[in-house]
């Protein structure tokens, strides 16, 4: 029986290969080498979370009714008996309390969505701090950035579908943000909601966007992302034998495939465990959407919370003198909404999207890079990353300012005033402190390379001198500490030539020089072979 089965399988495989030539492709993929490092699992977590989202989403789609038509609730939840609500909200309650496993699947779907976005953001942070976005991976950075934006769109559209008070208020905020856009805002709002807010079509439109448009785009971009990873080969951390022209790691099959398969079930199991233990988005506590109640202590999910925090942080008057709402030619220009909810996120995400080109232009480093940076060896980039994180965290904290003030018995106004100042001061301090820490770590690395590790063992020479014995680093350790580029600031031609004529383009060159100095004027050079040899002779 076993021999027949093997013969049938091999015959089928041979038949398919003769007609598709898939054998050579499978052989090529199976031999693809991947470096082995724990930080590469962040991207896998995002992928597996999305698979969980698809699986749980198919289940939920079978029971959710994307309609804003009104019904009177007559189900097992006593607190909602006789309450008029939309069919969307009623179907959410039906799914939660009457469908076997419905509440668990809802919570698995919600927790997986949070993990999906968190994994993408953390993965992008790893790519940013290690320089994995450099040539030739700039396009893949844009693909990952777009995936992050789409994850926000998927999360918000799904979060708004139950049509409860919390999601309805979130839609109301988005409607206000949209209408703050000069001239076009009102037309965009009418197009989104089909008329005056809330209209009767926003839930069906969000449903189509949530289950069809956004997932389709995410699937396409994931495929493109993986294709570019295979095309450019995987990045790797510095170490002996690892260069910009090779990859040191394990083949995709069978080692990496087995690890990835097992890791998927670990991620799925953790999400299921969290969903079974911790309640999230209990819409029955909020009730169906009604524009009249506004409750305190309710915030959107963390990935949208920064917009809410920016809106709370923005004052209605600037220095109690300049109003933040202007009347111009019959139009109301709401700077107190436009700046925090449109301009600031636009600048923040725009800087992130185009940072690979900004850094390449500022540093002049346009060569292909396949070996990653240690964050300490690129102090300015690391400092900028920390500053961006601090900026984002301040907005998130402000989005929960009422809860923080209540929990720690603080004044809400004082907390908001502190964060208004901190949004300008703390990111700068974070940048300066982080850059200084990186310089300190680099100097420590130089000491280790030149003098080795301290052993604590004291030896007395014949002439009476006491010295501490240092243990030299291994070749692997030394390679990691010295293998980074020493880039000097840009030098430009003088402002005036030998005839005393001012050179064209000098101002632009001067700007590029200042930017280059910002990156490289303060730096710690790696240990050169000459320095290492001199230190070795001194120790001997």
Automatic annotation (TrEMBL):
Source species: Demequina sediminis
Taxonomic classification: Bacteria, Bacillati, Actinomycetota, Actinomycetes, Micrococcales
Any Pfam family: Cytochrom_B_N_2
InterPro entries, alphabetized: Cyt_b/b6_C (IPR005798), Cyt_b/b6_N (IPR005797), Cytb/b6-like_sf (IPR027387), Di-haem_cyt_TM (IPR016174)
Membrane topology: Multi-pass membrane protein
The entry's keywords: Electron transport, Heme, Iron, Membrane, Metal-binding, Transmembrane, Transmembrane helix, Transport
Annotated gene: qcrB
Top-level taxon: Bacteria
Residues in Cytochrome b/b6 C-terminal region profile domain copies: 239-440
Cofactor annotation: heme
Catalytic activity: a quinol + 2 Fe(III)-[cytochrome c](out) = a quinone + 2 Fe(II)-[cytochrome c](out) + 2 H(+)(out)
Protein name from the UniProt record: Cytochrome bc1 complex cytochrome b subunit
EC number: 7.1.1.8
Broad class of where this protein is predominantly found: membrane
Cell location: Membrane
């Amino acid at each position: 029986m076993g021999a027949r089965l093997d013969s049938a399988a091999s015959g089928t495989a041979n038949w398919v290969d003769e007609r598709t030539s898939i054998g050579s492709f499978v052989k090529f993929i199976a031999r693809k080498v991947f470096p082995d490092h724990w930080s590469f699992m962040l991207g896998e977590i995002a992928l597996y979370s999305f698979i969980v989202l698809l699986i749980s989403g198919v289940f939920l789609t079978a029971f959710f009714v994307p309609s804003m038509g009104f019904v009177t609730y007559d189900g097992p939840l006593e607190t909602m008996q006789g309450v008029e609500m939309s069919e969307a909200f009623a179907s959410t309650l039906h799914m939660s309390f009457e469908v076997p496993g419905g509440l668990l699947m809802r919570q698995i779907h919600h927790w997986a969505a949070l993990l999906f976005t968190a994994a993408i953001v953390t993965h992008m942070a790893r790519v940013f701090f290690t320089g994995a976005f450099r040539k030739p991976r700039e396009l893949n950075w844009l693909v990952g950035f777009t995936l992050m934006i789409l994850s926000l769109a998927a999360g918000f559209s799904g979060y708004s579908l139950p049509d409860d008070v919390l999601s309805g208020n979130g839609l109301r905020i988005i409607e206000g943000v949209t209408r703050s856009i000069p001239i076009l805002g009102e037309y965009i709002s009418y197009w989104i909601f089909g008329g005056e807010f809330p209209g009767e079509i926003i839930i069906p439109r969000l449903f189509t966007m949530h289950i069809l448009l956004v997932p389709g785009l995410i699937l396409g971009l994931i495929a493109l992302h993986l294709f570019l990873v295979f095309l450019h080969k995987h990045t790797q951390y510095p170490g002996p034998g690892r260069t910009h022209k090779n990859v040191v790691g394990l083949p995709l099959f069978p080692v990496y495939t087995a690890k990835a398969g097992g890791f998927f079930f670990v991620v799925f199991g953790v999400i299921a465990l969290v969903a079974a233990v911790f309640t999230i988005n209990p819409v029955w506590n909020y009730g169906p959407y009604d524009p009249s109640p506004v409750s305190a202590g309710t915030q959107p999910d963390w990935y949208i919370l920064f917009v809410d925090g920016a809106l709370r942080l923005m004052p209605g008057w600037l220095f109690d003198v300049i109003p933040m709402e202007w009347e111009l030619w019959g139009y109301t220009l709401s700077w107190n909404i436009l700046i925090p909810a449109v301009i600031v996120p636009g600048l923040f995400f725009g800087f992130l999207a185009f940072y690979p080109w900004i850094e390449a232009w500022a540093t002049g480093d346009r060569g292909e890079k396949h070996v990653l940076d240690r964050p300490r060896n690129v102090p300015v980039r690391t400092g900028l990353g920390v500053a961006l994180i601090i900026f984002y965290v301040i907005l998130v904290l402000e989005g929960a300012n009422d809860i923080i003030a209540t929990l720690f018995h603080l004044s809400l106004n004082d907390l908001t005033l502190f964060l208004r100042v901190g949004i300008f001061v703390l990111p700068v301090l974070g940048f300066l402190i982080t850059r200084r820490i990186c310089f300190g770590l680099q100097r420590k690395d130089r000491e280790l390379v030149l003098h080795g590790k301290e052993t604590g063992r004291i030896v007395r020479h014949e002439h009476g001198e006491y010295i501490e014995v240092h243990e030299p680093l291994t070749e692997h350790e030394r390679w990691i500490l010295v293998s980074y580029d020493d880039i000097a600031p840009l030098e430009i031609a003088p402002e005036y030539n030998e005839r005393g004529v001012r050179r064209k383009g000098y101002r632009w060159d001067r700007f590029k020089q200042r930017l280059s100095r910002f990156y490289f004027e303060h730096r710690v050079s790696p240990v050169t072979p000459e320095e290492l040899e001199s230190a070795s002779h001194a120790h001997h």
